[in-house]
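RECORD TYPE: protein structure
NAME: VOC family protein
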Amino acid sequence: MRETNKLFHLAIPCKDLDETVDFYEKLGCKLARRYDDRVTFNFFGDQVVCHLNPNDIDLSPKMYPRHFGLTLINKKEFDQLLERAKANALPFYLEPTTRFEGKQEEHIMFFLIDPANNLLEFKYYHDIEMVY
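PREDICTED:
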């Protein structure tokens, strides 16, 4: 299990700082810092830094293997995040779906796509033993 004094850090490209801030704040992430070339967010307790690099945007993103996101342990929080995404008209790359239906690792998930084509996956496992 993760220790509370450690945060995961992820750096990704973005093409426009303003639209990046708008997307991640609508998702529920708090803007921590902003510079001329990057923005840093509290991404649900971890750190995501979006570096301005419009020439490094994936024009044809694919879910696998390049994405990041959040596995929620609480179904109510998963549902609230899904509703927040819908209410804020965030763009879905993949609408909510069930994966591995009928198996122990069954989970529900959805993918969002940020303004720089970074793919974000959010999921909830019905069996907590399958989280790792």
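COMMENT: The chain has one domain: 9-130.
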